[in-house]
Amino acid sequence: TDDFHSKRPEGAFCQGRLGCRTTMSSSSVDKLLTTVSRVSLGLGGLAVIPTLCMYDVDGGQRVVMLNMLTGVEDKVRGEGTHFRIPWLMQPKHYNIRTRPMLIQTTTGSKDLQIITIHVRMLFKPSIE
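-> structure tokens emitted (128 positions)
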């Protein structure tokens, strides 16, 4: 065997030599992994909080908030990002864009012929 490696104390570092090994105790590795896992779980938990407390209202939509304690709130929320209390407030999205509705009916004329009338109506709900 090599005299250099046999005289080296356990756990000592060697400088650029092949076959050189360092030893780390398993308890220090366990402590490091435990710390890393706790920090990552904490940061992951903090990253979830904003997604639970915020909601977006897109263009052409309005939101009415359902409060689990007091019922439906009178305020109608428009476009943008809004805050809510998770599990206590539930946003209910409504589409307020103009939509077509096709109404058709059949009727008789004076000369007793059947006529089908089609009416295309554009409507949108009232925002108030």
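Residues 26-53 form the longest helix (28 residues).
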